[in-house]
Amino acid sequence: MKTYPESKLPDVGTSIFAVMSGLANEQQAINLSQGFPDFNCPEPLMQLVTKYMHEGHNQYAPMPGVLKLREKISLKTDLLYGYLPNPDTEITVTSGATEALFAAIMAVVTPGDEVIVLEPCYDSYAPAIRLSGGTPVYVPLSLPDFSVDWDLVKSRISSRTRLLIINTPHNPTGAVMTKQDMDTLANLLDGTDILLISDEVYEHMVFDGQQHHSALQHPGLRERSFVISSFGKTYHTTGWKIGYAIAPPILTAELRKMHQFLTFCSVTPLQLAIADFMDDQQHYLTLPDFYQAKRDYFCEQLKGSNLEIIPSAGTYFQLAKYDRISDKYDLEYAKQLVHEIGVAAVPVSAFYHDKTDHKLLRFCFAKSENTLKAAADQLKKL
What we know:
Layout: H1 16-27, E1 30-31, H2 43-54, H3 67-81, E2 91-94, H4 97-108, E3 114-119, H5 125-131, E4 135-140, H6 150-156, E5 161-167, H7 179-189, E6 195-199, H8 219-222, E7 225-230, H9 231-234, E8 243-246, H10 249-262, H11 268-277, H12 281-285, H13 287-301, E9 308-310, E10 317-321, H14 330-340, E11 343-344, E12 346-347, E13 360-364, H15 369-379
Parallel strand pairs: 1-11, 3-4, 3-5, 5-6, 6-7
Antiparallel strand pairs: 2-8, 7-8, 9-10, 10-13, 12-13
Helix pairs in contact: 1-14, 2-11, 3-11, 4-5, 4-10, 13-15
């Protein structure tokens, strides 16, 4: 019998997003699990893609990304965060933010290193850390508002700490870091060699008059950070998988060494189209109002249900607590909802390494009003 090598990730199965979306498709349920819109991206953006395809821009893009797109990213960064990164040495276009995250982690984490991860967290962080030979050190966010206990973070820092990962606005909880959080983090890392990944893919989805505070705005953080964002989130094009990383030249050089052997480059006509469409600043400047209206509509439709809504300050996700309805484990309960009422959500335990269960489900509200109303009508039956 043939002997196969041991798995590098023996305890990792199919992503919870794929599992719940697959179950939703199988049961023809309303899918509020995986984070993607059920409406299209702007028509002018699609027309630009077609234009560039017909003009023959269908071959490899430059490895760091199309220069025009990197230049537009630089100008936008300056407009929003008061920092003008060098397009040649500080900006890299990647095949989605997940690739940027993987490349950044692989670039700087070596065997024996520790990486501080705030939980609950996006499920790609820990596998990338482990594949690089590092060890995730988990720090739980504080309930009920999922704020960061910086004293607890400080207590987990050791001589082996190489990297710390933050995510704001935060998936899955919708929590948003404040300026005070960023100042505290800068003071915490001052005088150390600890690097930072700031996952800011939901930067344009911050609600109720709050502001997104980027690591790029803080010189003490900027000089040690990979700041990662996603055009998929901003332009309702998650299937295009176009993201980017901004980092100091020395970190960018290391990230690109990984990037060139992961995907080498991202889709050329998509990059060119996005570069042109970025001139429409109103799209991303009005995105907070656009998604806040969807959040408010969904929550209004859920009034009268037995779910407890946990306020979402950002992203396009809404948490709901179901402990008044059931004491079942959240994964079991999420699957039950698909079968019994035809609505798919993601159990929040999937975002914890030890599957901590707070009886919370995550719903994606990046959907049409018809979809949100239909889902809420079903959820009110619980």
